[in-house]
Amino acid sequence: MTRYRTCGLARLVVFAPVGMPHKGVAQTADAPSGTATFSAYPDVGELKQLKMVGDFNFTDPKSFSTVFNYVNALLGATDEFGPHEIDPIKVVVVSHGPELVVFAKKNYGKYKDIADRAASFAKRGVRFEICRNAATFLGFRAEDFHGFVTLAPPAPYALAYWQAKGYALNAVGATMPITPLSEFNRADTNRN
User: What is the pTM of this model?
Assistant: First the structure.
């Protein structure tokens, strides 16, 4: 049996073979194959370090707040599950979209909660890099930003660099490629 559900402009097609349970039908304890279990990675102790580079490019700078929950979960899971080495995790965030205005000193009042949370992550070892090209496009220089961030080469180069150094790319903070200027940050830039 095929079911169609409409969500906005897209149509979701759900294929449910005849006789298979679907939403709203109770399943027995053994159907279709028992109950799920939780399992951490038993070989995590063999790893010395986890390394992740985050690709951050948001239309709305306030999106940082939500994505920081992922960073926090990553750090917390490493504390809980390992690896349990001296330096078990390295995280680099490469920011190259409209969200980079949250790091500008002049916008601290508007984005205080996000900037303070980023600074607290920096104290825990998270490295924050801002694409120099995006910053320049928005009228910023290095001295316009808080001291816990670094201006880096263009974002595609920075992301390739960190991946070549063994960092796994996590694009949880990336949207479709957009210019650094958006309706959400226009007033927060140094552009004339």
Answer: 0.76
